[in-house]
Write a structure and sequence with these properties.
106 residues, alpha+beta, Alpha-Beta Plaits, four-stranded antiparallel β-sheet, 3 helices, 4 strands, 29% strand, globular, DUF3240 domain-containing protein, N-reg_PII/ATP_PRibTrfase_C, DUF3240
């Protein structure tokens, strides 16, 4: 999507580092849902965090990536459903929040 008025929601995907390439490849194949996105390093903590490496177990937090996608809420919901069918991984968390404004500096 290129029309900035169509960005009414922000999808955040919290993914294990090991899934980064699979998720980014999926998003690049579906520009109708994710015309652009940002990837941020993060760490997950709490009951839902899967601690895989010895370092993660010692620190009590899991290395993650956050993928941020601004778009139309309906399209972002379709994206989540399609990604879920393709990956089927309980270690991927997601949420959609209202996006009050979106634009580019000119």
């Amino acid at each position: 999507m290129t029309d900035e008025s169509l960005h009414d929601a922000l999808l955040t995907l919290a993914i294990p580092v090991a899934l980064e390439e699979d998720v980014l490849d999926f998003l690049l194949r579906h520009p109708e849902w994710a015309g652009g996105f940002s990837v941020v390093d993060a760490e997950g903590m709490g009951q839902g965090a899967s601690l895989l490496s010895a370092m993660e177990k010692v620190q009590g937090r899991a290395r993650r990536k956050l993928v941020l996608i601004a778009g139309a809420e309906a399209g972002l919901r379709l994206l989540v459903a399609a990604l879920g069918r393709e990956l089927r991984n309980r270690d991927v968390a997601w949420w959609i929040a209202p996006l009050i404004a979106f634009g580019r500096l000119q």
